[in-house]
Amino acid sequence: MNQSSQQIRPLRDMSSHVLAQLETMLAQPAWHNGGRLPPEAELAQQFGVSRPVLRKALVQMRDAGRIVSRRGSANFVQPKADILPAAADGQGPSIQTVFDMRRCLRFREVIECAAAEDAARVHDPHATAAIQTAYDRMLALPPGESVFEADFAFHLAIAQATANPYFAFTLRSLKDQIRLTIEFTRKLQDRPPDQVVPRVVDEHRAILEAIKAGDVEGARSAMNFHMKQSVVRLLEEE
Question: What is the pTM of this model?
Fold first, then answer.
């Protein structure tokens, strides 16, 4: 065995040892809801290893979907699968990883872009007023009330404005999965559940204004931008 092979084996053994320690740490109840890992330098010191050894173990945890790395930020532990259930009625796919959340957002993009387009095409004044009401509720959210319910009400009002009941039915069926995705994204951003994000409000306003104007292409485009930004907020992709 050459010298380089002798150097690689201890590195692998050490990273496996650190991986086992990390898994033991994350099995503790304090981490079941996810959260931000300590800085790499602090973790390396805690485990008594170099940062390259620690990073090798972290890569394995990322590959396994146990943690998520945010660009320019830190490593975040994903909530355990047992608190990310399937829909309340026991049917439908469960959300167990960030990749599941991304797939859910992709499906929402397809459905909700079409819903925004149809809502603008139908252009029913009563239905549009309901979207406006949902938007206004988001702006006047009482302290301590979760943003999710106001956000979901806005999207549901758009689905109902299509005059096609399948849009609202599909969105209601996804409510639990959507809630988990939004709440986890907020946790990654260290945002409290009742904090309204100005850029999200701006995106909703653009959708609302296009629907109010009967601008079919504008409504689809605004919703498409909003859904793609949701992926950016989750994964920090460019």
Answer: 0.69
